[in-house]
């Protein structure tokens, strides 16, 4: 048996034992937008959902203080915050 066949066989065994479900579980913590990382045509961009939520909360707090100060009239919508990054 070739080393490739042994590797594929081992992966199938791992999948049956739940290894792939653990990897899938980890991906629940990341957002992927299907764009490629820089010029790499193999790997796609991914961002930690916790970090994205923290950034969004910070942007909302900043907008809220600007509204109180009269610099802007309203806090940006979810869509506007996502586009602003």
Would you give an account of this structure?
The chain has one domain (3-84). The protein has 4 helices and 2 strands; from the N terminus they run H-H-E-E-H-H. The chain is elongated, with a radius of gyration of 21 Å. Strand 1 (30-36) and strand 2 form a beta hairpin. Strands 1-2 form a two-stranded antiparallel sheet. Residues 1-10 have low confidence and may be disordered. It has helices spanning 3-16, 19-27, 49-68, 78-84, and strands spanning 30-36, 44-48. By secondary structure, it is an alpha+beta fold.
Brief synopsis:
The protein is of the alpha+beta class.
Number of domains: 1
Strand-and-helix sequence, N→C?
HHEEHH
Count of extended strands: 2
Low-confidence stretches: 1-10
Shape: elongated
Judged by helices, strands and strand pairing, the structural class is: alpha+beta
Rounded Rg: 21 Å
Keywords:
single chain; 85 residues; alpha+beta; two-stranded antiparallel ribbon; 4 helices; disordered N terminus
What is this structure's SSE topology?
Blueprint: H1 3-16, H2 19-27, E1 30-36, E2 44-48, H3 49-68, H4 78-84
Antiparallel strand pairs: 1-2
């Amino acid at each position: 048996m070739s080393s490739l066949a042994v590797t594929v066989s081992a992966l199938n065994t791992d999948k049956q034992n739940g290894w792939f479900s653990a990897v899938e579980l980890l991906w629940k913590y990341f957002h992927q937008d299907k764009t490629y990382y820089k010029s790499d045509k193999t790997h796609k961009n991914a961002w930690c959902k916790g970090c994205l939520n923290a950034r969004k909360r910070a942007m909302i707090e900043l907008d809220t203080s600007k509204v109180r100060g009269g610099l802007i009239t309203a806090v940006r919508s979810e869509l506007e915050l996502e586009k602003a990054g």
